[in-house]
Amino acid sequence: MTLKVYADRMSQPSRAVIIFCKINGIEFEEVKIDISRRQHRTPEFEEINPMKKVPAIVDGRFKLFESHAIMIYLAYVFPGVADHWYPADLSKRAKIHSVLDWHHSNLRHGAATYVLNSTLGPALGRPLNPKAAAEGEKILSESLAKIESVWLKGNGRFLLGSLQPSIADLSLVCEIMQLEVVNEKDRDRILGPHKKVLKWINDTKNATRPHFDEVHSVLFKVKEKLKRLQSGGAKDETQSTLKSALHSKM
Amino acid sequence: MTLKVYADRMSQPSRAVIIFCKINGIEFEEVKIDISRRQHRTPEFEEINPMKKVPAIVDGRFKLFESHAIMIYLAYVFPGVADHWYPADLSKRAKIHSVLDWHHSNLRHGAATYVLNSTLGPALGRPLNPKAAAEGEKILSESLAKIESVWLKGNGRFLLGSLQPSIADLSLVCEIMQLEVVNEKDRDRILGPHKKVLKWINDTKNATRPHFDEVHSVLFKVKEKLKRLQSGGAKDETQSTLKSALHSKM
């Protein structure tokens, strides 16, 4: 039975899991769960993931959610996954767990809070919230600084001084990519000061091409559509503007 | 060279790691890092953990932080750790990763936000914030409901229907124990409705005795001291009241 991946490519952890499967030649069926249409809240999807979040997988009779846990599981059970994604070496593996744990309450918390409250909220039925956006940006900027000074310390092109990417690189870069939908000036202000981060994003893109670009294409489409809608008179990112951008994304 | 565990027993993930070592007979030296005295922000500790958080470990020349990553590492490298703490079975292991990942943005996020903003903040140099406390409580209560309906579904005494505890039980229960320092009426209001959670906390305590009680004794001391200070005229949990309770905790 083929592995099923329940995902919305507008969700950053969904993209990480899809890219991981594609680059490792894991056969899977992608089941689209459109968050902007609230498909993650249907009783059918609740049977797959009672937490009502994407991504989730079904492998035979085994169900699993949480993107880090999913990638670790896939690295274990699919023999084609190269060691660098989730190394057998215990100390390397432990450090990857450490990055991934840190990710939850730092980069992910900051970036998701910022993007939701500065840009995407209205499309998901929540008002924009400048105060929450500012708090998110603070955590995001501190996290980017820590990525540079701690995780990207040394000469390796990837996190933890590695020469090849791991599931941690993929998770964290997919998170930062979500900033593509944000106003360009704001994105440059936030990412601009972090040259090592920018280089690392590029290195991760290059190491996972062509899948990285293909899986992110929906994000770029939404970005372009938002730009057009805004320059065409809809100066504010209103609920209907965003919803129309999201609903027509595929 | 003995394993060093840098910890503050007032920190819930620190307690999880200490109890894990003790119950598994792992020899270690506990190095106290007193958060209320800002010892986690010294240059010496920054050498151990550049993120300035406890717990952290040093095993020979290997340094690691993030409590989940630490317990997984210890389960790998210390042969005395019983399988149920971090099962070799891939699907069981994957589900434990899923619980631990979920923990970060749900139970831990909610409980830590609530306790900090309702009670402990002033002792750590932050004012109380009733609005943030209310937001934390909402996430905490939703998380407790999910623990009951999802993770404690079935007949097992522990998470995921297990008959013996895993590192996920230990992490989550230590988090909930932090509510001991909160006003009794508030704690009962929050925990009271979740009978299955209360039973599971008790089962986890019983499975890890006497270490669970011993490692949590500092929390109970702070709780008693706070009660006495409050009933003795200091009606508000002022900065000095809390600081004195924390500083004299050992």
TrEMBL record, chains A, B:
Give the matching CDD domains.
Answer: GST_C_Theta (cd03183), GST_N_Theta (cd03050)
What Gene Ontology molecular function terms does this protein carry?
Answer: glutathione transferase activity
GO BP annotations, alphabetical order: toxin catabolic process
Q: Which domain of life is it from?
A: Eukaryota
* UniProt entry tagged with the keyword Kinase: no
Q: Indicate the segments forming the GST N-terminal domain, all copies.
A: 1-82
Spell out the family assignment given in the record's similarity comment.
Belongs to the GST superfamily. Theta family.
Is Ligase among the key words of this record? no
Please give the catalytic activity noted in the UniProt record. Answer: RX + glutathione = an S-substituted glutathione + a halide anion + H(+)
- The EC number on file is 2.5.1.18
- In Swiss-Prot or TrEMBL terms, this protein is called glutathione transferase
Q: Which residues does the annotated region (Disordered) include? A: 231-250
Please list the residue ranges annotated as the GST C-terminal domain: 89-229
InterPro entries recorded: Glutathione-S-Trfase_C-like (IPR010987), Glutathione-S-Trfase_C_sf (IPR036282), Glutathione_S-Trfase (IPR040079), Glutathione_S-Trfase_N (IPR004045), GST_C_Theta (IPR040077), GST_N_Theta (IPR040075), GSTT1/2/3 (IPR043377), Thioredoxin-like_sf (IPR036249)
Show the Pfam families listed in the entry.
GST_N (PF02798)
Keyword entries, A-Z: Detoxification, Transferase
